[in-house]
């Protein structure tokens, strides 16, 4: 069959439209994936990692499990919140800058809005004695949550460097940070620099 | 000037905190309570408690809210940007290079070596909240609530949102009596 030029153009138009639709569907997928992760993950970003895996590797197959494992490992070598690093990076890989943005918005904005609404209500009534008593009772619970978090970081330190080194570093950090009042940023920067010093020596050999 | 301060207050924890959002909590506290005095320790604990009872990443919830109280919607957006952008840009830029060195022990060591420091920072915060709680509720009540919530959270695996909810109910009831 001989195609008329008009048909060709028409087809082109349809193709572009289809591609737009595919793109829109992809953006919607990215948004929904990270929206679900954001709304279902309690306990901060790190505890949401299994949910990210379920969406990204399981449901949408944007990454292989191995790829995902590498991404997590490398994301952990960089500072800052892990959930947004993952959302931004995976969103970017799947859908470019727009993908990055929709993953970001989906994982951050809904919970921030919830937070602002709830705390604004609390602030409005904070002078009523029983409301004050309510917020007082939460302080020890937060202390426990932080204690649990502290313990998990101590355990992680032990697992990766053994008790002796971990305790030495912890005691040194207590002295530097809490007794001498050194800014944590300086200590962290020095430690990271120390990691790379032997690396350079090896390179020179 | 407030917007610049908001940016710095969240930019610094964002680039120093290794180990995800929860690791940045003590660093955020250092900025917003100690340096700028935007919140008292107790107010910070309320924000943290409610943040923990809601889903989603904790660092951005805190940034979004504190940014909002200090600088409105623009403040909130700046705080979120400062929390997210630096580490994300770093990740996008360095991913290709790091993938090549992912087996290198040095790259693996970066996050390991920082963990004890984060442990100390969060530990110090725990102590601070414990002292604050003793001041507000007395030693006996503090210890009882702490033991009960520890058992619920760790032993019986009760959902954090429920534990916080129960603490709120308990506080409300004892406040009425």
How large is the count of helical segments of chain B? 7
Low-confidence stretches of chain A: 200-205
Query: Using only CA atoms, what is the Rg of chain A?
Result: 25 Å
Shape of chain A: flat
Q: What is the radius of gyration of chain B computed over CA atoms, rounded to a whole number of angstroms?
A: 18 Å
**Helix-strand makeup class of chain A:** mainly alpha
Instruction: Tell me the series of helices and strands of chain B, N- to C-terminal.
Output: HHHHHHH
Number of helices of chain A: 6
Give a written overview of the molecule:
Chain B: It is a multi-pass membrane protein. Chain B: This is Chromate transporter. Chain B: InterPro entries: CHR_Transporter, Chromate_transpt. Chain B: Its main location: membrane. Chain B: GO terms for molecular function: chromate transmembrane transporter activity. The complex is a heterodimer of chains A (205) and B (177). Chain A is mainly α and 205 residues long. Chain A has two domains: 1-124; 129-205, no CATH class. Chain A is built from six helices and no strands. Chain A has helices spanning 5-40, 49-59, 65-75, 82-124, 129-179, 184-204. In chain A, helix 1 packs antiparallel against helix 2. The termini of chain A are far apart. Chain B has a domain at 2-102. Chain B has seven helices and no strands. Chain B has helices at residues 2-16, 21-35, 41-53, 58-100, 105-137, 139-155, 160-176. In chain B, helix 3 (41-53) crosses helix 4 (58-100). In chain B, 51% of the residues are buried. The model of chain B has no long low-confidence stretch (mean pLDDT 88). At the A-B interface, helix 1, helix 3, helix 4, helix 5 and helix 6 of A face helix 1, helix 2, helix 3, helix 4 and helix 5 of B.
């Amino acid at each position: 069959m001989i195609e008329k030029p008009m048909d060709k153009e028409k087809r082109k138009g349809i193709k572009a439209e289809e591609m737009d639709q595919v793109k829109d569907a992809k953006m919607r997928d990215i948004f929904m994936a990270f929206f679900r992760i954001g709304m279902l993950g309690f306990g901060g970003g790190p505890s949401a990692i299994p949910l990210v895996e379920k969406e990204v590797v399981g449901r949408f197959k944007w990454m292989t499990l191995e790829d995902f494992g590498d991404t997590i490992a490398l994301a952990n070598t960089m500072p800052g919140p892990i959930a947004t690093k993952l959302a931004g990076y995976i969103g970017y890989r799947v859908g470019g800058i727009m993908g990055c943005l929709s993953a970001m918005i989906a994982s951050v904005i809904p919970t921030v809005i919830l937070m602002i609404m709830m705390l604004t209500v609390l602030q409005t009534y904070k002078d009523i004695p029983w409301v004050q008593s309510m917020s007082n009772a939460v302080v020890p619970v937060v202390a426990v949550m932080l204690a649990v978090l502290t313990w998990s970081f101590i355990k992680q330190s032990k697992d990766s460097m053994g008790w002796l080194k971990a305790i030495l570093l912890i005691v040194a950090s207590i002295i530097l940070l809490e007794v001498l009042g050194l800014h944590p940023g300086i200590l962290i920067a020095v430690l990271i620099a120390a990691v790379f010093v032997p690396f350079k020596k090896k390179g020179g050999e | 000037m407030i917007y610049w301060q908001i940016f710095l207050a969240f930019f610094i924890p964002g680039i120093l905190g290794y180990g995800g959002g929860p690791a940045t909590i003590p660093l955020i506290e250092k900025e917003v309570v100690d340096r700028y005095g935007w919140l008292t320790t107790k107010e910070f604990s309320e924000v943290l408690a409610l943040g923990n009872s809601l889903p989603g990443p904790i660092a951005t919830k805190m940034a979004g809210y504190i940014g909002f109280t200090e600088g409105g919607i623009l403040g909130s957006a700046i705080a979120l940007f400062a929390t997210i952008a630096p580490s994300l840009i770093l990740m996008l830029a360095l991913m290709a290079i790091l993938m090549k060195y992912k087996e290198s022990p040095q790259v693996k060591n970066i996050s390991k070596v920082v963990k004890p420091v984060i442990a100390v920072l969060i530990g110090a915060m725990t102590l601070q909240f414990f002292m604050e709680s003793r001041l507000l509720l007395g030693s006996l009540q503090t210890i009882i609530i702490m033991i009960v919530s520890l058992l619920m959270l760790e032993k019986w695996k009760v959902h954090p949102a429920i534990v916080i909810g129960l603490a709120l109910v308990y506080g409300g009831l004892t406040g009425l009596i």
